[in-house]
Amino acid sequence: MRPSRLTVITATAAVAALTALTGCTEKSSGGSGDRVIDVTATDSKCEVSKKEFPAGHVELAIENKGSKVTEVYILFPDDRIVTERENIGPGTKQKVTAEVKAGDYTIACKPGMKGDGIRQSVKATGGTAAKRDPRLDKAVAAYRAYAQTQADETLPKAEAFAKAVKDGDIEAAKKAYAPSRIGWERTEPVAESFGDIDPKVDVRADGLEPGQKWTGWHRLEKSLWQDKKITAADKTLADQLITDLKDWQQRVGKAEITPTSMANGAKELLDEVATGKVTGEEERYSHTDLVDFKANVEGAEESYNLLKPVAKENDPALVTELDKQFAALNTLLDKYRADKTSYDFTSYDKVGDAERKELSDGVNALAEPLSKLAAAVATKS
Q: What confidence tens digit (pLDDT) does each residue in 14-54 have?
């Protein structure tokens, strides 16, 4: 779950950790400028340089002139997410490449990373979108199948967790908790793209909107590890968790997935690690952060591997660097588990500051080149 509220210290660290997502736009008859949208965010405004642009690959050139960390989205009319960029610090600029079809959209800025945001209606016109490499179509189909498999495999694990909660078996529920989250964490950008499922399933206490009821994994995590008791309300929440996860499972096949959304999603997973797992905020009661960490990296690597053949042709140096940094981060994570085939990781409260810094540095070393993957697959050979 993305952090919805950051302390000043956490925000500063996040801004330092998250590098800009560089973009590359297709050439059109009028030059590339018509495919670049300048987005200027402040604490009270979200201004865009154009309200219409050609369908195809577009680049958001974002500048945060406000005093708060913000995030910027391109949204479908029903608030599903086309693409997003989180943790944009005050005074910073970032870029994101996205692929959009002709139609109506909303660009939203969220100062403080809260609420519905400040919105601008925009339109992608017919235009002449570049013809997609057939290998990228195959990559999208393979990733869609991967995301569906992760959802399908999550349900029985989540049901085992929910059963333990409803049985009042705290130790069994604790044991089932982290494994039940792996498939979700591997494909979280797909779940987040629907807009309404993630807040029900994976929200933390500090991410709640005013009036929102706290449901999902982390509410039950608190009961198990901090409160050390299972209430009747928790048993009801366990049933609700399964209902919401089944909703996710049924919707995965309908998700809007493009090569650039896969690449951006891989970067989002690294952002999740940087702002939640490395800091210990995600699993603050159970300290199972390294399980989530590994799952996020696995999901990012799956997207990368599927896009790799095209990226290698367009930017071979980038692929060499990504191969190196994925291997280095996976090797680093292996230090925290005795069995490389298991997800039995060291409890994160046992990981010292120096080791957390090493993990953070490993994430940052991968996040920087990964931020260039969307541009590499958008570029025509």
A: 333 333 333 333 333 333 477 899 999 999 999 999 999 98
Mean pLDDT of the residues in the chain:
88
Q: Which two tokens stand for residue 145?
A: 């199948």
Report the alpha-carbon distance of residue 318 to residue 316 in Å, rounded: 5
CB neighbour class for 229 (10 Å; exposed up to 12, middle 13-18, buried from 19): exposed
C-alpha–C-alpha distance, residues 87 and 3, integer Å: 9
Give the three-state DSSP class for 26.
coil
Distance between CA atoms of 161 and 175, rounded to whole angstroms? 8
pLDDT tens figures, 231-245: 999 999 999 999 999
Contact 165, 180 (CB under 8 A): no
Of 370, 216, 217, nearest to 288 (Cα)? 217
| Contacts of 199 by beta carbon, 8 Å cutoff, 6+ apart | 207, 209, 212
How are beta strands 103-109 and 70-75 bridged, if at all?
antiparallel
List the structure tokens of 150.
Answer: 């992760």
Q: What is the pLDDT of residue 27?
A: 37
- The DSSP secondary-structure symbol of 168 reads T
Which three-class secondary structure string do you get for 173-238? HHHHHHHHHHHHHHCHHHHHHCCCCHHHHCCCHHHCCCCCCCCCHHHHHHHHHHHCCCCHHHHHHH
DSSP codes, 254-305? G----HHHHHHHHHHHHHHIIIIITTT-TTTTT--HHHHHHHHHHHHHHHHH
C-beta separation of 278 from 352 below 8 A? no
Task: Report if pTM > 0.85.
Answer: no
